[in-house]
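Many introductory courses stop at the sequence. We go one step further.
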Amino acid sequence: MAHRLRGLPTTDVCGRRVPVAATRAARLLGLALLDREAAGSGLLIPCCRCVHTFGMRFPLTLVFLDEAVRMVSVRDRVPPRRLAFEWRARAVLELPGEAR
């Protein structure tokens, strides 16, 4: 896991333990600028409906979650330099590659 993700709080989502983007920097950067290995198990971005993949070095699987942390949609293999939006979402789980 990348150094910048280590100090974040963690939670269990979709059967995996992930850091929570609790700071402004963590929310803005997400997994951008990291290698796939440094991305670890992913990142939960709460209070979020839209994410970007600018600065990504690998495709992402984006799991959009509702207020009860249930999946409302999944976008597989989202390439770099894209925007992804889901109006029903209240959080987004960013996962490296095709992991789920």
